[in-house]
User: Which sequence fits this backbone?
């Protein structure tokens, strides 16, 4: 299995001159450094690939031994096309996550070691916030719809997925077909609605996972970590 961290975005909602990915979440780690540390422990450092775009130098200087691919159209594309850049460099099962998400180690472990033998996505069944990506289930308990506009959602998608090797060509085809402005969830939904990929939900349970879009999100992560220490 290979891991892809999507880190090409501009992070305009966070503000400031420093990339939010390089902001400290505690006295030791940055936001992206936490992901790299966990995925290194779970899969090995040589299995991690970062997709860069906006201000790539800082991340590369902080982690010079990792593999990188550059999305030259990062300013005009979204995560679907960034993921497409990565898939052309990889083989086998692929895990990917947005770089601006804090997650505990147990979350990656739960997704990677899930008993599911199919492609799967990390979800939170307890939350269905309006502004987040949500999902519905089909009659077999697999993810059917996957978007922010889902009605009667079964829960919220947390932006970390594993697609098994046999499904990667189908996903790549869908990523090529969606619009430049689309998130990768759009391509996944094309596949699930068409029945071409079976995507199983893996519930995060009571583990902590939080996307950092705004400074207040960062403070919530820092508060959580301070309470754990």
Assistant:
């Amino acid at each position: 299995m290979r891991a892809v961290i999507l880190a090409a975005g501009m992070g305009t909602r966070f503000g400031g001159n420093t990339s939010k990915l390089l902001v400290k979440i505690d006295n030791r780690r940055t936001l992206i450094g936490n992901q790299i540390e966990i995925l290194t422990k779970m899969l090995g450092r040589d299995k991690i690939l970062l997709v860069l775009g906006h201000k790539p130098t800082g991340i590369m200087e902080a982690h010079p031994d990792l593999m990188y691919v550059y999305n030259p159209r990062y300013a005009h594309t979204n995560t679907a096309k960034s993921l497409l850049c990565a898939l052309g460099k990889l083989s086998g099962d692929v895990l990917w996550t947005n770089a601006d998400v804090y997650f505990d180690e147990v979350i990656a472990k739960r997704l990677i070691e899930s008993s599911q033998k199919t492609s799967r996505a990390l979800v939170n069944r307890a939350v269905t916030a309006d502004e987040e990506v949500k999902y519905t289930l089909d009659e077999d308990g697999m993810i059917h719809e996957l978007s922010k506009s889902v009605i009667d959602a079964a829960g919220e998608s947390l932006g970390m997925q594993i697609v098994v090797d046999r499904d990667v060509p189908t996903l790549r085809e869908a990523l090529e077909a969606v619009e430049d402005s689309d998130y990768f969830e759009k391509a996944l939904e094309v596949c699930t609605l068409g029945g071409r990929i079976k995507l199983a939900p893996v519930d995060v349970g009571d583990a902590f996972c939080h996307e950092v879009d705004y400074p207040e999100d960062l403070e919530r992560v820092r508060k959580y970590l301070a309470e754990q220490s």
